[in-house]
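During the first year of the project, the team set up a workflow for recording each protein of interest as an amino acid sequence followed immediately by a discrete structure-token representation. This format lets reviewers and collaborators read both layers of information side by side without switching files. As required by the reporting guidelines, we include two representative entries from the current panel. The first entry is reproduced here exactly as it appears in our internal archive.
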Amino acid sequence: MNTRQIASEYRLSQWIQTMQAHKASGISITSFCESRGVSRNTYFYWQRKVRAATCKELVTRNQVEAAGSEILLVPNGWAVCKAVEAEGNGKPLAVEFHGFRVVVEPDTNMDHLAKVCRMLKSLC
């Protein structure tokens, strides 16, 4: 890692702390920026940079399916699972993650389940 990358990461970490301080303050962005002597445009510039860096870090291109050349974006720490026809007793499967509980029935719509998982991930 070169000094430019280190400096960039340092600035990002400083702005992450600044944005967390704003959130904790409970005041408007305008008031917060005035109290810190920072322009709103600078705040929003760094907010975009922080979001872009966060998304780049969280999401990896994990798998390309040959059938439709669909790219599945999977957050780090998650695994790609393929749906398979299960031999079982027809009982529901309960999945718990970060305090959320999802019950998957044998006839659960997989598209709906994928949407629920994405929504839960965005909350964590």
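The second entry, processed by the same pipeline in the following quarter, appears below.
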Amino acid sequence: MRSHFNLDVCLTDYLSSIFLTFINILMKFTNTGIIAALFLFSIFLTERATAQNKSIALSSINPHYFTYKGKPSLLITSAEHYGSVLNLDFDYAKYLNELSAKGLNLTRVFTGAYVEPAGSFSISANTLAPAANRFICPWKRSTITGYQLGGNKFDLSQWDEAYFSRLKDFLSQAKKRGIIVELTFFCPFYEDSQWKISPMNHINNINNLGTMDRESVYTLKPTNNLLPVQTALVKKIISELRDYPNLIYEICNEPYFGGVTLEWQHQVASVIKDAEKGFNNPHLISQNIANNSKKIENPNPAVSVFNFHYAIPAAVKENYALDKVIGDNETGFQGTADEAYRTQAWLFIMAGGGLYNNLDYSFATGKEDGSYSYPSSQPGGGNAELRRQLGYLKRFVESFKFIHMHPDLSFVKEKSSAETQIQGLAEPGKQYGLYLYGKEKKEIELDLPVGTYHQAWLNTLTGVLKKDAPFKHNGGRIQLKVPTYTKEIALRIIRKN
């Protein structure tokens, strides 16, 4: 049997139906039963409303994943280059519509403490590089001309309420579409050209702040006279966004460049935690660790999401014992073809990752639907078809009761090799998921306990799900035939008894 893959598991709705059935039984008896049923129903509605408004959090069942609106959740997307809010020409409603239409549920956004000049990193139509006089940030413009990107300089002691209105509307629009926003407070200045246009640079503000070199901006050095400004920015944003549940705060993008110190990152994390102490629904904090992979030593207890860029499965394996979400929240520099980023997503998520964000360059000002045709020199890829394929990945994992699954390849008798990479998730004895990438196989040998199993093979490029007939197994090793495929395929096995 073949079908287009479209299966969601909703534990909350299942439990709701059981609860409502129980209430109906109560109401068939006495008046007392009716009163009791109404009382229980009011409690149920209150609890459900509370779950709907609660901030995204780590799952208490399996903290390698999230919980949001009372449901287990993982975050997968292919998102624009972080300029949705700071670029006044960018129509973020149209952009968010495209993410939602493809079944994706995450975006990442910079605050405006960092902005890029046109041409940075050879990016064409860079959303993080607004046109002249079209840049907006948290700080209000002064009456003095001279900002490097056009218009007046900034007053770092005053807030621009138009910016916060735009930021809050962005969060609201994302919330309506079920999209989580990872808001990144700061970003290092990779080159002098970026520091030269930052509002924090003394040449761009009227406060005579930011007179240091770019590699001292995110440190606790005595020469960093911007620390009070940075602290005030974090507190202001937290105050403005306290009631948005679809929000994760990231300390700093790629702090392993530009002189950013670990001590400064810990300081920002402390500011976030202290500012949210009285909140009913505090937000998660994420920290960007490294490119590719790195074992995290002495993790900050305030951090719940540890992000990598251009991540490999080893990033999950090395840090899985932390019992926190491990994310890959930026891709790129592997050409413009879809395969590199699609397979990176599958290998990472099927290794136990809980967050994936492909950096998608097909989103541009005027092309917020993701239809921009970028040149071959672009440092990454992205397009509607890749977004659709990442949606297949998300729905594949969600077709399991994935909150009970962990990285596990013990049931696979053939391991990864130079020819074929294999990643898998399992709840032993109940459900198994596999992803194969590389040399095509005609059979795969598994070791499963006795039982009756349903198996289905997913074409990860087309979303077509081939459901094979259920099979009974007496336990031990079994050879499964693999459908014809090209380079990659995914397998779902669910035990029925």
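For the second entry, the following points were noted during internal review. The longest strand covers residues 152-159. DSSP finds ten helices and 23 strands in the chain. Both points are flagged for discussion at the upcoming steering committee meeting.
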